[in-house]
Design goal:
The structure is a single chain. The radius of gyration is 21 Å and the shape is elongated. It contains eight helices and four strands; from the N terminus they run H-H-H-H-H-H-E-E-E-H-E-H. Helix 3 runs parallel beside helix 6 and helix 4 packs across helix 5. The chain is α+β, with helices and mostly antiparallel strands and 216 residues long.
Length: 216
């Protein structure tokens, strides 16, 4: 049993995105990544301390770490490990603390987060000794894209969102970009009101394309 109010809030947001009859795919993706990052950061399964993985599990780990972006299936890992997939699955969970799939997801999230950090795209807002918000900013050729602005639910309503938008303005100026763009869901009325007060203007609306297009 896990007691985590923020995790529950993130799950509720993801669930609402999934059951929406006209889902905003960008918002759904963001909600999914935030949930995974929270689980990875605070509730990730960890291997027992002081125990080295067995040779079979080491071979599977080497494959997962060597090319985490590729499609990897359990039979392939079992073949590399030299044992059947059921034995590998049991050994992997026992020695690593997660299934191969869960380990791979955590690995991908970690690498994606590190890549954004190395690019200078992720900025954290600190208040006292804790982080209260984050902004993901992408410098494009002719504009700065505010990919994501997030404030902890317990810290909302205290001006942190405005502070992050002010910071985005500063980054755009420093980069010599005269235009800042962001995308949001039309149902997020409070966010839209905040953006308008900050000086943003709506330039258009569009429906997100479905997950797959015929012939695409």
């Amino acid at each position: 049993m896990v007691s985590d109010r923020l995790l529950a809030t993130l799950f509720a947001a993801l669930f609402a995105s999934v059951i929406n009859t006209e889902p905003d795919l960008l918002l759904l993706e963001e909600n999914l990544l935030r949930l995974i990052m929270r689980i990875s950061r605070c509730h990730a399964l960890r291997p027992p301390p002081g125990r080295e993985p067995s040779p079979s599990v080491k071979k599977a780990l080497a494959r997962l770490d060597g090319d985490p972006a590729s499609a990897i299936r359990l039979p392939e890992l079992a073949g590399l490990a030299g044992i059947n997939r059921y034995k590998l699955l049991r050994a992997f969970v026992r020695e690593v603390g997660a299934t191969p799939h869960a380990y791979l997801v955590q690995r991908r999230v970690y690498l994606a987060r590190q890549l954004r950090i190395e690019r200078g795209e992720v900025w954290l807002l600190a208040c006292g000794d804790s982080y209260v918000g984050a902004a993901v900013l992408e410098e494009r050729r002719d504009h700065l894209l505010v990919y994501s602005i997030a404030v902890r639910p317990t810290e909302q309503g205290r001006g942190h969102g405005r502070a992050l938008l002010d910071f985005a303005d500063q980054r755009a100026i420093a980069a010599g970009l005269a235009v800042i763009r962001l995308y949001t869901n039309v149902r997020m009325e409070k966010n839209i009101a905040l953006y308008r007060r900050h000086g943003y203007a709506e330039t258009g609306t569009r429906r997100h394309p479905p997950a797959s297009q015929p012939g695409g």
